[in-house]
Amino acid sequence: MKYRCIPCDHEFDSESTSKPRCPRCMTIHDIEPMTASATAPAKGGKKKYLGPAVLLGILLIGIAAVLLLNPKEGSEPEGGNAPSPNDIKARLAELSLEPDQVVDPCDASDSVKAWVDQIGPGDGPEATEKLQTALLRAKEQGLWRPHPQREPRPSAPLSAHSLATRFMSTAKEAPYEALSYELACLLLAGGRVAKAPVRLVEVLEFDGAQSPADPDGRLGRYAVEVGQGSEAFLLDPYSGRSKASAKGRTTALDRLQEAAPYYGIAALSRLVSRQTPEALRLNDAAVALDGRSGWLRMGRGLIIAATGAIEEAMNELERSVKTQEEPPLLVDLAELQLMTDSSGRSAESSLVAALSKTPKYARAKA
């Protein structure tokens, strides 16, 4: 039978009818059977979803863990005033971080330059496409596999420098569980080495049939925009989308904003390890870099909720939704509302709002 993995959007065949495992990201959760119409190449084909009981169980686990984060949105970056890497590190040094935490995650370091030289892509937009091809080849070779975008890892994200170093290492290691953000940062840094006009964008949804079935939550989905004006196109190394397929609603990030998700994701990693004070400190740094982000404030609210300060957490969550009324934020707000309003009316209102924007949102329906 044919299945689709919702977290990484991979289609595969499996003989198992109970808990088929995705061969790409190895998850057994959020796997949906595909109908004949869903596997057809025509656009707009309908999808089947997991049973409500299974999804409700996943949703309740999310409430108990209080470990949720969603993609962020900001305004367009201002042209001509982008801070230099030195300015970014100077700004980070002001944020009460430990010295080893002052990281420019998208810096075109010597390690990134060596990785680009090893691939030998040349210059310009075409060179960035070659770098994406190299990243996808590395996945085929077993160097990395996609990490589910709704499951925070205990380990903090790697910078472009660290990921390039790992990919060039000759040591035999297990495939790296790569995040969308990490891959996009490496592709972005490599594009800068190749002197291509590139910038980091956050993908809120892709054009056409919604894919993955639910919007990416907790850890976000990031891509690289290459080129300018009408010639610009997206590259999404996480799922292998090229300029022919990676089209959708995006938000461009400036040099300070592109570093913010690094600290937002790192904060959730600390929360997974029950290091709540450190998680809050890292989230403070993320919000300082991009104070307009509803996604980072949602993460802040969930970290505060883990301390037991539910009222303060609810204020942060409500503030995040007022900033950006995106469906994943509304669903995360609903999950906390279920903990504070036993009638369920406030949660239902948030879920109705989410479904009005994304009618096929399986998690919201559950």
Description:
The structure is a single chain. With 366 residues, the protein is of the alpha+beta class. The protein has 14 helices and 9 strands. A 4-stranded antiparallel beta sheet has the order 8-7-6-9, with helices on one face. A hairpin with a 6-residue loop joins strand 7 (222-226) and strand 8. Helix 5 (125-140) crosses helix 7, helix 6 crosses helix 7 and helix 8 (260-272) packs antiparallel against helix 9 (276-289).
Quick recap:
44% of the residues lie in helices and 11% in strands. It is α+β, with helices and mostly antiparallel strands.
Order of helices and strands: EEEHHHHHEHEHEEEEHHHHHHH
Number of helices: 14
- What is the strand arrangement across the widest sheet? 8-7-6-9
Mean of residue pLDDT values? 79
**Fraction in helix:** 40-55%
Low-confidence stretches: 36-81
Write down the overall geometry: globular
Radius of gyration: 20 Å
Count of strand segments: 9
Beta content: 5-15%
Largest sheet: 4 strands, antiparallel
* Ends apart, CA distance between termini: 24 Å
Label the structural class: alpha+beta
Topology:
Layout: E1 2-5, E2 10-13, E3 31-33, H1 36-39, H2 52-65, H3 85-93, H4 110-119, H5 125-140, E4 144-146, H6 160-168, E5 176-178, H7 180-193, E6 198-206, E7 222-226, E8 233-235, E9 248-252, H8 260-272, H9 276-289, H10 294-306, H11 310-323, H12 327-340, H13 345-357, H14 362-365
Helix pairs in contact: 4-6, 4-7, 5-7, 6-7, 8-9, 8-10, 9-10, 10-11, 11-12, 12-13
